[in-house]
Amino acid sequence: MPDFPTDSVTPQPVQSGLSTNAAGTLAYVTIIPAIIFLAVDPYNKNSFVRFHSWQCLFFAGALFVLHLGLSIFTIVPVLALVTFPLHLLVSLGGFILWIIVLMKANQGQMYKLPVIGDLAEKQANAM
Q1: What is the pTM of this model?
Q2: Positive or negative, the Cα torsion across 49, 55, 57, 60?
């Protein structure tokens, strides 16, 4: 029969939930976590998580409007040749900005995008 140590170590309680940095980062994955974080306790009480959730929603909305606006110009055949590279440029710029805000949220920084960041900050502090 094996000998067990007599001095046992008491386990530390497990903290439930995500850290604020992880929640802020996950808010940018899609708009679904951002909406969930704005609706569920304790994340909707944290200004850091609320800021990143609102910024994600405004960022997704801005990208949607830009792509929709460019799509309207594809009705004219000659402009379709011009708007295709612009779609790619908007997508590439959005991807780069998305990586930046993911990294900044993971580092615990409230990095504000131009215009969108100010709107998100007002919404996050409105509660």
Answers
A1: 0.80
A2: negative
